Amino acid sequence: MNHKVSIVVLTKNRHELLKLCLDSIAMQKYHNLEYIIVDSNSDKNTMKVIKSYKSKIPIRIIKAGECSIGAARQIGFKKAKGDIIAYIDSDVELPHDKWINHMLVPFEKPSIAGVQTLAKSKPNDHPMLKRIHNSFEYKNNIIDIDHYEPVGTSHILIRRIAIESVGGFKDINFKEDTDLTYKIMLQGHSFVYLPDEKCYHHHVDGYKSYLKKEFRNKYHGAVCLLQGIK
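Above: the chain sequence. Below: its structure as tokens.
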């Protein structure tokens, strides 16, 4: 495998979770990686964490300012140089040091646009977090327009050419990822799901953050409905 992989992490004021994320990224054994953090006006604590990792991995910090999640993902994409883009959100912890290596294997087939996995929980995670992770599982290991299921970009590898072919991410705060992957599938491309490579995705840490997430999703979902976004 000779792919250059650009890891793109989006963050805003997530310094405690960001440590777990960057620790898991720094331990990856794959040899050809680029590290990009797209930051949206984070506080001093978050910036201090980011800068502390620059001695371990050559992080490029991109200042995005206040913008939508879609715009931030697109900024990271535009700055990336790899032929494979690895989106890893700042509240995601990779499960082991060969994760990138394993996620790259399906790209041996040119028809594969991206490789996706889902999230799993740790034994001491909050019950609401376990509920989120247990609420969804793909029916097939190949996801395409004929076997469609929503594919997010919290922990995924996607070919650069696939993102370019659909014009990149929309400047929106919700479903910016599933909008992109749906359009890629419409072109006849497929995504591979690797159930053995599930990550730890720390969406929420209690009932308060769970309710906040649900409210945000419903609000942005209503906006997307009005705008006709699938």
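Residues 207-227 form the longest helix (21 residues).
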